[in-house]
Design brief:
By secondary structure, the chain is mainly alpha-helical. Strands 1-2 form a two-stranded antiparallel ribbon. Strand 1 and strand 2 form a beta hairpin. Helix 5 packs antiparallel against helix 6. The longest helix is centred in the C-terminal third of the chain and has 19 residues.
């Protein structure tokens, strides 16, 4: 795939679409959010469980990212008052399921990009063709 074969009209975004794309990037940006979502997809977790599952994240950064994900309705914080001491648990909301296609598309693009960067042009071109055919 060369740049000459790119349909440049597919990159046209009117102001509204550009705003929506910016909103999506604002919610998902950063190094940690997807890793936190993946950790929570496996089970309901305490803060410590998430910190252990997401290698390298500091407590301060995890707290900030969890607040951000809660603000956008992707993560819910529950306080289990039945246990002593109180147990604070985090889990994904149903709303996070609306991102499944977005995550799949981003993963596919990442795989294609890695092949492109590695010089494996056969895999890169095959993945690119399959993506274009699916549109």
């Amino acid at each position: 795939m060369t740049t000459d074969s790119v349909d440049r009209s597919m990159f046209y975004f009117d102001d509204a679409k550009l705003d929506f794309l910016g909103e999506t990037m604002c919610v998902l940006n950063g190094k940690w959010k997807l890793r936190i979502i993946v950790a929570l997809s496996k089970e309901v977790c305490t803060f410590k469980d998430i910190q252990d599952a997401v290698d390298g994240i500091s407590a301060h950064c995890l707290a900030k990212e969890l607040r951000h994900l809660q603000l956008h309705g992707l993560v819910q914080k529950k306080i289990n008052v039945k246990l002593r001491p109180l147990r604070i648990e985090y889990h994904l909301t149903d709303y996070v399921g609306t991102l499944q296609d977005v995550f799949q598309t981003l993963s596919d693009w990442g795989q294609m990009h890695r092949f492109k960067r590695s010089g494996d042009t056969d895999c890169y071109e095959d993945l690119g063709r399959r993506k274009q055919e699916s549109f």
